[in-house]
Specification:
alpha/beta; 267 residues; D-Maltodextrin-Binding Protein, domain 2; globular; 3 domains; 14 strands; three-stranded antiparallel sheet; 40% helix
């Protein structure tokens, strides 16, 4: 009897630890990412915090911007708190991939290469890009003129990839301010960036020694999430929020508010 009691005790302990259905309970199922967010009561949103008008700090040092309001709306519709994590651009996707961030709201272009590695929401904005040079530059007029030239761009960005594709030598920088500074100082000859960001910069800095020489059809942006079956419900939920914002006009209103024009429809 003593030995039998010891065996039953061991079995009961094993059942309690593993929650096996054979022991009278249901097997414990791992939570998917949406369940984890809802249980936690917050969603971690990666963003740069220094890319006007997408995500930046206002005069009161409050984090604001188009993508900040997108992230806040997603959190509100899910019934959780938005926790923004400001980080360099080249750390955003790596953080999503590792699970450090639940989502990213930072004008992330949906490219075939990224779509192989990350789960994306439906597009929520279709921003054009621009090729920018110093005001006195008369040699660069289009992307075809970038061969053998120097540009400044964020690492791992589609703009840097585009510059490399056209034969430019890219110097990697962290912020738009750094980019423009290098351009004005003559340390690089050009840059490619979001049209809205460049126009906003030029409005805020009317004496900036730069000019736009070409408008380039952009790539739609979406909300990236970690790829995998456990992200399916989160992708569906985020898509639902974006569709609601599209239907009620919020997406268009935010685009006009921050970019001066509705960029939420495909050309």
């Amino acid at each position: 009897m003593k030995n039998k009691g010891w065996i039953w005790g061991l079995l009961l302990a094993f059942c309690a630890l593993t929650a096996l259905s054979a022991c009278g309970g249901k097997a414990a199922m791992p939570k998917d990412r949406l369940d984890a967010i809802l249980e936690r009561g917050s969603i971690t949103i990666a963003t740069e915090g220094d890319w006007v008008p997408w995500t930046y700090h206002d005069a009161s040092d409050v984090l604001v911007g188009y993508d900040v309001e997108i992230g806040e709306r997603i959190a509100a519709e899910l019934g959780v708190k938005a926790e923004f994590a400001e980080t360099d651009w080249d750390s955003i996707l790596a953080g999503v991939d590792s699970g450090r961030f639940d989502i990213a709201c930072n004008g992330v272009d949906i490219t075939p290469e990224r779509s192989e590695k990350y789960a994306f929401s439906t597009p929520y904005i279709y921003p054009d890009a621009v090729l920018v040079v110093r005001s006195d530059n008369e040699d660069i007029h289009s992307l075809e003129d970038l061969a053998g030239r120097t540009t400044a761009n964020s690492p791992s960005s589609t703009y840097a990839d585009m510059a490399l594709e056209y034969g430019a030598e890219v110097t990697y920088v962290s912020t738009l301010n750094d980019t423009v500074q290098m351009l004005e100082q003559g340390r690089v000859e050009a840059t490619i960036n979001a049209q809205g960001s460049i126009r906003d910069y030029m409005e805020q800095h009317p004496d900036a020694n730069i000019k736009i020489v070409q408008v380039i059809e952009g790539v739609p942006a979406g909300v990236p999430m970690q790829k995998g079956e456990d992200s399916a419900s989160l992708v569906e939920a985020v898509n639902g929020v974006l569709e609601k914002m599209r239907s009620d006009g919020t997406l268009a209103e935010l685009s006009v508010k921050y970019f001066g024009v509705d960029l939420t429809k495909k050309n």
